[in-house]
Design a protein that fits this description.
Phosphate_ABC_transporter; D-Maltodextrin-Binding Protein, domain 2; cell membrane; 276 residues; eleven-stranded mixed β-sheet; PBP_domain; alpha/beta; phosphate transport
């Protein structure tokens, strides 16, 4: 009986050794992404789905801002640079390809107690450039407007200011480095106004209509909602010239599962705008 017990133990040890050896022999394939904090929710959702489909893939995202992501892909420290704005001509001239994977709406939000439901585009411009400073000037209560925005270099800020043609003109009371703190500031300050990505809107803030149009998939697709911007996964050269792992990521985004994920996080997919 003792001999049998020893044989069983030896067998178990051998199986465990062979199993660990076999697992060690499987090489992990990594894909690195860096860039826009606004794209974090979408990228993490795609990461989960992609790693389920391809267990050998390891997706390594960082969220340091659009400009930092673009610089990272240019200098070769990341495979994909995530940008929540269109690429500049100067960036394209350096060999970057603008792969638009989704369209996002920039939504204007206030605290839930604010009585204003709609702003015209001109009123929004005037608020952010300091010409309108009190909510009573746009049909609200007699309350100072606290203008909140992103930091310089943010893709969201760049897109917002470019759409409204107010680059370098905004007068911010508060500038924050990520999307989350915009929500927190607006939620906690009565009279605050801010801009965030559609996919992060929750019940703690109040989204405003612009020119009578609320942001939705329908109004983004038909172009009625004016404050919209691309979510770009920039690559150095075309997708077909990327390594096999990166190509798998873009193929997954274009798949039915990938498109469902993009819609599930509140974005509009645009798979036909990738550069093969």
């Amino acid at each position: 009986m003792k001999k049998f017990g020893i044989l069983v133990v030896v067998f178990i040890v051998c199986v465990a050794f062979l199993s660990s050896y076999a697992n060690a022999d499987v090489e992990t394939e990594k894909i690195s992404l860096n860039g826009s904090t606004s794209m974090e929710k979408m990228v993490n959702a795609l990461k989960e789905g992609l790693e389920d489909k391809y267990p050998e893939l390891l997706i390594e995202p960082q969220f340091t801002g659009s400009s930092a992501g673009i610089e990272a892909v240019l200098n070769g420290t990341t495979d994909i640079g995530n940008s929540s704005r269109y690429l500049k001509d100067s960036e394209k001239e350096k060999g970057l390809i603008e792969n638009i994977v989704a369209i996002d709406a920039i939504v204007i939000v206030t605290d839930t107690q604010n009585k204003v439901n709609n702003l015209t585009t001109q009123q929004l411009i005037d608020i952010y450039t300091g010409k309108i400073r009190n909510w009573k000037e746009v049909g609200g209560e007699d309350l100072p407007i606290v203008v909140v925005g992103r930091e310089a270099g943010s893709g969201t800020r760049s897109a917002f200011e470019e759409i409204l043609h107010i680059e370098e003109q905004c007068q911010y009371a508060n500038e924050v480095n990520e999307t989350g703190p915009i929500i927190a500031k607006v939620q906690s300050i009565h009279g605050a106004i801010g801009y965030v990505s559609l996919d992060v809107i929750d019940e703690t803030v109040k989204p405003l209509a612009i020119d009578g149009i609320q942001a939705s998939e329908e109004t983004i697709q038909n172009g009625q909602y004016s404050l919209q911007r691309p979510f770009v996964m920039a690559t150095k050269d075309t997708i077909e010239k990327q390594n096999e792992e990166v190509q798998k990521l873009f193929q997954y985004i274009q798949s039915e599962d990938g498109q469902k994920i993009i819609r599930a996080v509140g974005l509009v997919p645009t798979s036909n705008k990738m550069s093969y």
